[in-house]
Amino acid sequence: MPSTSVPPPAIDALPAEQVRDPDLWIVAAAWATIVFAAIQILLFSFGRDQGIYAMVASGLLDGKLPYRDVWDFKPPGIFLCYGLSFALFGESMAAPRVLEVLGLVGLVFAFRRVASVYFDSKTAGMIGAAVAALTHAELEFWHTGQPETFGTYLIAAALVLASHPYTRRRARVWGWVGIGVAFGCAFLLKPPLGGGALVCAVYLARQLAADQRGVWHLAQPFLVIGGASMLPIAACAAWFWLAGGWPDLSWTLGEFTPGYTALGWHGQNAPGMLYYATTQAFFDFSALIGVGCIAAVAMRPMHSREREGIFLLCGVASIQLAGVAMQGKFFQYHYGSTLPLLALIAGLGWYKLWRRCLGQGAGGLLAYAAFILIVASMRRAAEDVPYGFWQRSSMRMEYLFGLGNLRSREALDQELYRVADYNLGANRRVAQEVATLTEENEPIFVWGFEPSIYWMSHRAASTRFIYNVPQRAQWQREHARNVLSRELARRPPAVVVVQHRDVFPMVTGGNLDSAQALDEFEALQHLIAAKYQLTTRIEDFEVYERRHEPPKATVRAATPPL
User: Fold this and answer.
1) Percentage of the residues of the chain whose pLDDT score is greater than 90
2) What CATH fold (topology level) applies to the domain 423-546?
3) How many CB atoms lie within 10 A of CB 542?
4) Rounded CA gap, 96 and 475, in Å?
5) Number of Cβ within a 10 Å radius of residue 126
6) Is this prediction's pTM over 0.90?
7) Residue ranges of domains in the chain
8) Model confidence over 120-138: pLDDT tens digits?
9) pLDDT tens-place string over residues 261-314
10) 444-447 and 495-499 as β-strands: parallel, antiparallel, unpaired?
11) 285-307 CB burial, b ≥16 within 10 A, e <16
């Protein structure tokens, strides 16, 4: 019989095969978490430090020089970041937050790239970015927008360059230059952040050693990265030198700042402080980081380069933790550049758990979701703000969509943006009072630790010292008081604001608030008593207005009789 084979159906008649990415849901959840965290960050207002950076950045845009004309003791990089945000987005509290969120978006893609190289999974990088974004948002307004925040983005860029598989020598050298420049810029934000350059150089030299290169080739990463890292530092030093601000920079960073750092070392030892910094970074801010890192190390590697990537990330993080220990304060924001690196490792661990649960069906996925929610609620990154993070986030979302009682930004600031003695709402009311009492061209002086009053009142300071820590500190205060007295005499303020209850032993080395410290500063005390009168009190602030001296009587000569 003749064969009766049936011809195969046409290709376009076949039903389309549906291929679903098993990681689709967790990638969607990661993006949702990142977007949620970004919205919260955009709704953050200024804390005390952010007010300082804003004042110095505004001065930069007006042609003033940090340390010489507007004083703070942070390295200059953070002022440049805030100045850049103001130049791009206008002078507002939202501008640095927009720059911060743009950096966060860049961090997501950097983590995806690094994870694809070392973990063979962009999804692991996405989960790590989500953990990093959520942890960063949980640090709240006080501990974000800091030097460590922006330093993180530079370090992530350097890690992308370090992990890139270069095929041409010239491209590899330019990649090393980029690594050095990134870490040099990070140094200008916080010096310990620049230490990761050494870790990357060792890592790259080790790769060259695997190719049996000579000693000269092994030295090249150190020379190129080290030299490139000095470029932004040298450019910044030249800027201050040519602008005549080197003596003020030298006194601030070379004499005042070491005294501030030494406060945290009383009764402490280096190994104990490093141990404390390490345990805090892994376990105190986010249980998602701690559990994820344990899972990443304990579970079977997914890729041959996995351990290599973990060692690189831990190496850079260890330099940063040494810097945290060296500062001796252990403020939450000091960990701002370390937590994202650990979050990337944690992302690998959570991804391994996800892949394990995928094989268990719907029950396994529900167990995974329940477990991650429980772990996420175990720790709070910031304990010093009113309410909890989730309640604060709910209030911010209600404000964003016009729900609830917080219908204005002022009401939101009054309710949420306060810590201990700091109250942004009170600062705003003082600024409004000062603006009422003065003309736009009249300078003012705040004897306290609230530089945002200058910024919100749109009034210039009579002195470079926009807060009084140098005059209250137990070291270098005589020099700072002499400079302040000269500047106030040269440019007398129209209004003086005196603050109460701003006690910071870890910052000033003493237990007196500004009002009490005034009793020890006779020159300023006599100036206020002689030429100013109390106008009003607003919460912790006294507002003094300059007395209007009566016009001097004129004596007319007697007219001789005709």
Assistant:
1) 81
2) Rossmann fold (3.40.50)
3) 19
4) 32
5) 26
6) yes
7) 24-244+274-376, 385-419, 423-546
8) 999 999 999 999 999 999 9
9) 888 887 788 899 999 999 999 999 999 999 999 999 999 999 999 999 999 999
10) parallel
11) bbbbbbbbbebbeeeeebbeebe
